[in-house]
From TrEMBL:
Transmembrane region(s): none
UniProt biased composition (Low complexity): 23-41
PANTHER family, per database record: STAGE II SPORULATION PROTEIN E (PTHR43156:SF2), STAGE II SPORULATION PROTEIN E-RELATED (PTHR43156)
Coiled coil: none
Natural source organism: Streptomyces pseudovenezuelae
UniProt-annotated stretches for the region Disordered: 1-137
CDD domains: HATPase_RsbW-like (cd16936)
PPM-type phosphatase domain boundaries: 356-573
UniProt protein name: Serine phosphatase RsbU (Regulator of sigma subunit)
UniProt-listed InterPro entries: Bact_Sigma-Reg, GAF-like_dom_sf, HATPase_C_sf, HATPase_dom, PPM-type-like_dom_sf, PPM-type_phosphatase-like_dom
Amino acid sequence: MTEHPISFERPQPGVDPADPRGALLHTPTPAPTTPSAALPAQARTGETPSTPGTAHPCDKDMGKGTDPATPAGGSEHSQPAVAEQDNHRPRPAPEGIPAQPGAEQTGLQSSGGSERRTGQGLPPGRPTPMRRDGDRLRFVGAATRRIARGIDLDEIVMGLCRATVPTFSDAILVYLRDPLPVGDERPTGPLLLRLRRTDRIPAERDSEAGFTPALQPEPAEVTELDTLGAELCEVRPGSALAEVLRGVRPVFTDAPAARAALPELLGEGCEFSVPGGQRAILAPLRGRRRVIGAALFLRRPERIAFEPDDLLVAAQLATHSALGIDKAVLYGREAYIADELQRTMLPETLPRPTGVRLASRYLPAAETARVGGDWYDAIPLPGSRVALVVGDVMGHSMTSAAIMGQLRTTAQTLAGLDLPPQEVLHHLDEQAQRLGTDRMATCLYAVYDPVSHRITIANAGHPPPVLLHLGGRAEVLRVPPGAPIGVGGVDFEAVELDAPAGATLLLYTDGLVESRLRDVWTGIEQLREKLAAVAQLTGPDHPPPLEALCDEVLDMLGPGDRDDDIALLAARFDGIAPSDVAYWFLEPEDAAPGRARRLARRALSRWGMEDMSDSVELLVSEVVTNAVRYASRPVTLRLLRTDVLRCEVGDDVPQLPRLRQARATDEGGRGLYLVNKLARRWGATRLSTGKVVWFELNRN
């Protein structure tokens, strides 16, 4: 395969190396000056487009053409005198072709003074068609810059279409492999090309007075370019299209091989809609390893045909687009992996514990950094409690996300052991040190008890939480700051605070309150003021909805406030009223199950739930019987009335009961089987002092 680089040509003598034009042009061999045909311009009066010779057009040098105004001794960039005469030429616009001075005198317009694309006259100062090789180079430079700006697949393909239409062609069809191979993957199955995007000149025309409606073309002309192109085509091995794609180089469609490949690419019959002559170029798109598609450049019959040098332009556009598509596919795979990693590291859904409502948000640091070290979690605990966790690992990379996942898993395991918050942070600190010496993180761990309406908080270098009271007052809780996780050799302290019903606790990471424009304490104060302002909108007796509150909090972020990823966890404390709780101690004796049934019957009668007495008494009796059989200390029995009826039985034996299928000759072993059949949910949790077995029943 022959490559056609655009940035490794020999610089010109006497030209500034920083000038991109001088770095791209060859020094032409002195030759007699002959008027060269234009690239996308109309034909001169009395001229016919040049035809390619026996050599392949792509082997020609883009700098060998001469301008009519250039002396025969060399190019405009090789003669200092000529450069001085042309030093007032305006610099090219980034995305267009520059206006040529004196175009009216040099005959750059077609016969009759009409503009090539629209058929109307060119007003003074309008860009003229590309007549020289310098224009081609400037067009290729502007087009490749536009293509290179894309970061994903659609942006790159759209950049190719917008850069070529209408400057280079009147229409373009871009076909890409389906599916696109990623990196070094070897594609399996047949080679399928899918039409990814088309673009064409819109049905308007420019005039001096502005846009005017174009004259409607004949119906046959509308059908030709507007309906051209099949949605999907299969490239059969050994076919004409396969040979053209294997050749890599762009070709004119009037060549026999390309003409035979058009029906396979566009569909049977559509090849007759392609303009005749050299008005269509089929350019394969080859990435780093293989051909990944094809681009078809088209010009209408009323426009001048392509020239042999235009194949070089098409080759450069195809090469840059294919390499960009390769990189975009790799970037898309990386982004997909990052998204999946972040999604699996964070909770898919939040639990619905008794007495508390939860809402959360997560925002990555930027679109190009979709993973980070921030996390949040809500873990149900025995006794209807819930652990609220938020943490932040330094950085927002794949490594930070991996460390975050390990710390989050460790926190969940420690929470299942019902350890105090300060002990959880201590073990997290040890785990971070085992992961590495530079694994630093901040974390805040809180445990809410809806029965006692209290919350216990331990902090490891994390920003303090904000509590929004029911009346609208917002306060920053005073919790011991502590040292970050991973420092080692430090102690963590826990503080117990009131958590009144109707209050909202907001846990967050520093990305919400700290940025280049403000320090962390200024951001915390702004957050407190924002929460108070939102609470005023709903009144003193109605707390704001959690989801809307999270959205309002994120709205405080300004354009320059996204320096880090953000994790946000909001908890609304509903609590459980004392009248909805019944609690007893039972001695581990044979009479305990009977006493438990009587106590449960009285509580249900007091709550007006007598219709549930039979099932509740049966299940309470079975669970209490298992507890007193092995317990050496008093057994606890608690009934909670919320949207469901929850029963909890605790003892001092750490072994958890297991559900098993009793045999017909067994005298026991059916208690948990009955609980599993009759209860809505049930479970067993190990505590530091024993275990708790619980079950829930739907209220009738």
